[in-house]
């Protein structure tokens, strides 16, 4: 340290004459927030299960009917 | 063993199919066997029975052509139509995602709360685009009817009871048969008109003195959309005999009439008679949640836990509230409690994983998500991947995040949040056009979110497409009026336009 005269040092601001100082302006964007998943109520689960089973059963029956048709058309 | 005894035993053990089969055989031998007949109706009802209080599905037609509401422009905090108008502000949208109805995401789904009320016809019709939240056109074409027809199809020799040929007045006078028959018609056949006829005749046969029949009448009126008639019946039933169920139904009627505060009053009345009844408390909490008065809702849920500390809905809602009010470690405690109670599904593990991550318990995070992925079905797996993407963003692994969001999309092509976040990642990589496309895709799928609108506006502003930027920024402000960045952008654009 060079004694007490350091307080008198004048700092000069430097502005470059050549080349521009610039900053790339990126738009600030927002992310969607993390999503806690809601738990399902028992009623809802039961309804979904019932619906699924019903759909499954209908599908099976339709397949069966189709199967009969397929038998019918076998000879042709 | 006596076959009837065996059938009863099966019925008590909830093996309804076996019970019904035995009854069918008995009835083949003796078609006039009343015991077997009643048991069979009860067994068939039991197969499809769901608690009527919990079932509430509102179709597009009911919602938009609804002339039951008293005021079209209601005072703040008195209507369920426009959430967020209450004096007590809900959680900020910047923190807690909202559902399509503009309400903060709930910690628990029940039938009927999945969609919420869209405000306009346009929005309502656009809803079913995403297959997961498809809404029936009217409630009578929804789940109910599908279940009814399915039950008809599955019996090769037609329905068990031919309703058209029943002499209702004969049955109505016989209480031992009438109640089982009513439940069969209501739950299994879903023939509300005939159920209503039977209930009306039975009420008359009991000289208007049986509260049970009045509640059943009200249930029918409710399903048929005659809410004022339902209200009258329920009130008369309460006068005769106060029952929890009746209060719950009355509350439901008021909710449908868009009078949440009256519904709360009803529940309070019920609570005076049945102090600490958790179903009534939960009903109140749900209404406050619907009004986005989260503090009241959470207080009530805590009351529920005071009386029943295994109440899944209360625990889940409190946990969600804590997570989104910046206390993930408290939320973690609640979710852990659910795990201890035996809830074991993808949703819970996903939530546990998120809580662990944000509570800085990194050792458990990935294990939880692995479990969640292994338990998830096609409807939930995309959300798990989406949250995993957030985890990857948190550890600055952008490639992993990108892949996670991609996987979320490959499982559910309509995952708007994933589109938005992919857009942000693309923008970070400098792929402006791709980012633009992603934001656009996101806001087309989910116009209720503010993020893609704002992002699109910011990007368009940057690219010099000021008109689109203005339109999008305005939409963002519409969706989230307190979003400062959108407001700033809009102000800037307005200034710019006025200079031109």
Automatic annotation (TrEMBL), chain A:
Coiled coil: none annotated. Pfam families: BBIP10. It comes from Littorina saxatilis. Signal peptide: none annotated. This is BBSome-interacting protein 1. GO terms for cellular component: BBSome. InterPro entries: BBIP10. GO terms for biological process: cilium assembly; receptor localization to non-motile cilium. It comes from the Eukaryota.
TrEMBL record, chain B:
Keywords: TPR repeat. GO terms for cellular component: BBSome; ciliary basal body; non-motile cilium. TPR repeats lie at residues 244-277, 346-379, 416-449. Transmembrane segments: none annotated. SUPFAM superfamilies: TPR-like. Residues 71-121 are annotated as: Disordered. It holds the Pfam family TPR_16. The keyword Metal-binding does not apply. InterPro entries: BBS8, TPR-like_helical_dom_sf, TPR_rpt. The keyword Cell cycle does not apply. This is Tetratricopeptide repeat protein 8. The lineage of its organism: Eukaryota, Metazoa, Spiralia, Lophotrochozoa, Mollusca. Residues 83-94 have a biased composition (Low complexity). GO terms for biological process: non-motile cilium assembly.
């Amino acid at each position: 340290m060079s004694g007490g005269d350091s307080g008198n040092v004048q700092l000069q601001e430097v502005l470059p004459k050549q080349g521009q100082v610039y900053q790339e302006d990126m738009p600030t964007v927002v992310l969607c927030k993390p999503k806690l998943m809601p738990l399902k109520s028992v009623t809802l689960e039961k309804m979904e299960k019932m619906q699924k089973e019903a759909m499954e059963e209908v599908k099976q029956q339709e397949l069966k009917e189709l199967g009969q048709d397929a038998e019918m058309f076998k000879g042709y | 063993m006596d076959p009837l005894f065996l059938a009863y035993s099966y019925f008590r053990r909830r093996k309804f199919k076996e019970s019904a089969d035995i009854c069918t055989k008995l009835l083949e031998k003796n078609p006039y066997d009343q015991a077997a007949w009643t048991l069979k109706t009860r067994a068939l009802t039991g197969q499809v029975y769901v608690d009527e209080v919990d079932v509430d599905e509102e179709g597009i037609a009911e919602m938009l052509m609804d002339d039951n509401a008293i005021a079209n422009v209601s005072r703040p905090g008195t209507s369920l139509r426009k959430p967020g108008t209450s004096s007590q502000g809900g959680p900020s949208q910047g923190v807690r995602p909202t559902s399509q109805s503009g309400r903060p995401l709930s910690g628990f789904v029940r039938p009927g709360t999945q969609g919420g009320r869209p405000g306009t016809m346009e929005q309502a019709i656009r809803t079913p685009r995403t297959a997961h939240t498809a809404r029936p056109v009217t409630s009578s074409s929804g789940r109910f009817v599908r279940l009814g027809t399915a039950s008809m199809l599955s019996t090769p020799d037609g329905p068990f009871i031919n309703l058209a040929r029943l002499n209702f007045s004969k049955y109505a006078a016989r209480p031992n048969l009438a109640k089982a028959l009513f439940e069969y018609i209501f739950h299994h056949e879903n023939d509300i008109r005939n159920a209503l006829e039977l209930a009306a005749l039975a009420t008359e046969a009991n000289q208007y003195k049986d509260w049970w029949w009045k509640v059943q009448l009200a249930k029918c009126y409710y399903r048929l959309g005659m809410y004022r008639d339902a209200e009258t019946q329920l009130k008369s039933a309460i006068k005769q005999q106060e029952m929890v169920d009746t209060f719950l139904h009355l509350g439901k009627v008021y909710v449908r009439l868009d009078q949440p505060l009256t519904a709360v009053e009803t529940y309070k009345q019920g609570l005076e008679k049945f102090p600490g009844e958790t179903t009534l408390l939960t009903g109140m909490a749900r209404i406050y949640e619907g009004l986005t008065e989260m503090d009241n809702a959470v207080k009530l849920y805590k009351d529920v836990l005071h009386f029943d500390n295994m109440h899944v809905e209360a625990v889940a809602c409190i946990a969600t509230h804590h997570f989104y009010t910046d206390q993930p470690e408290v939320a973690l405690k609640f979710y852990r409690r659910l795990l201890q109670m035996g809830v074991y599904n993808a949703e819970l593990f996903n939530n546990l994983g998120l809580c662990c991550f944000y509570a800085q318990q990194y050792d458990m995070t990935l294990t939880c998500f692995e479990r969640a992925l292994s338990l998830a079905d096609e409807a939930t797996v995309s959300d798990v991947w989406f949250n995993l993407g957030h985890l990857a963003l948190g550890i600055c692994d952008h490639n992993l995040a990108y892949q996670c969001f991609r996987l979320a999309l490959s499982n559910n092509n309509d995952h708007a949040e994933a589109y938005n976040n992919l857009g942000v990642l693309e923008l970070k990589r400098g792929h402006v056009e791709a980012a633009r496309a992603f934001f656009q895709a996101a806001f087309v799928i989910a116009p209720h979110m503010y993020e893609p609108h704002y992002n699109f506006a910011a990007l368009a502003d940057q690219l010099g497409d000021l008109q689109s930027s203005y339109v999008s920024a305005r939409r963002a402000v519409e969706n989230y009026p307190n979003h400062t960045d959108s407001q700033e952008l809009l102000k800037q654009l307005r200034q710019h336009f006025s200079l031109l």
